[in-house]
Amino acid sequence: MKTSKLFGIALVAAMLAGMAGAAPYVVMNNGKKVVGSKIRALSNGDINLTTDMGIRTFPKGSYVQAVADKPAEYDKAVAAYKAKKFDVAGKLLEGIMKDYRNLGWDVQAAKLLPQVLLAQGDAEGAVTAYSKLFMLAPEEKKNADMAWGMRNAMLKAKQYPALIRQLDAVAANGSRADAARAQNMRGDIQLAQNNVELGALEYLRTAILFKDVRDAEIQGEAHYKAAVALEQLRDPRAKEMYQIVVKQYGASRYASQARGKL
Length: 262
Description:
The chain is mostly helical. It folds into 3 domains: about 1-20 and about 70-155, Tetratricopeptide repeat domain (Serine Threonine Protein Phosphatase 5, Tetratricopeptide repeat), CATH 1.25.40.10; about 20-65, SH3 type barrels; about 160-260, Serine Threonine Protein Phosphatase 5, Tetratricopeptide repeat (Alpha Horseshoe). It has helices at about 5-15, 70-80, 85-100, 105-120, 125-135, 145-155, 160-175, 175-190, 195-210, 215-230, 235-250, 255-260, and strands at about 25-30, 35, 40, 45-50, 55-60, 65. The protein has a 3-stranded antiparallel beta sheet, with no helix packed on it. The protein has a 3-stranded antiparallel beta sheet with strand order 3-4-5, with no helix packed on it. A hairpin with a 5-residue loop joins strand 3 (about 40) and strand 4 (about 45-50). Helix 5 (about 125-135) runs antiparallel to helix 6 (about 145-155) and helix 9 runs antiparallel to helix 10. The two termini are about 20 Å apart.
């Protein structure tokens, strides 16, 4: 199974976790949570919440969060995505983003939509969808799954100069693990352009310069992809790299693939 597909499945599972239905509510600026039975976001940013005492209006700026009960369309969209009915899933998610704007589920739908678009082969559309997500919920830029999802979409969309600028920023300001992950993606960029030798060098840089990063997934990826590139170059060191993946990074998703090469 390809890495991008595994990422999509894992992302959906994470998003579904803890999403059981609950009554709609509003969290006020003072932290007080007001629960109701129905909720509606108005075009001016106000929120109408139906409570036991009637409809209560929360003017824009008087609340920090407004959340609706999970729409049935969301589960239908997830089911359609899993069934590979991507057109159906995309339309349902776009509808949720429109009908549940400012009610929490617009963000949840916006987080899943890029994966649907990538599954359809629309990488440019996925990049646009991620950009809209970050405008809708700027805090999602700090979500590693979303940030790297965006970069993966940029890679598939062949937006290399913009992606390299992002990777430079990650290397300069991010953690060592993020910098190592960025280094791996530099190799992906080279391979995507059929620069096999340069790609191998980028992966080897991760393996050598980021030895202190002991994340099995990151190092397993670096060593496995370096081995694949070296194998294409008919370099005998490829076998040694496959062995390292199996022996040292057996917890990574690349271990079974490396084992099949030995």
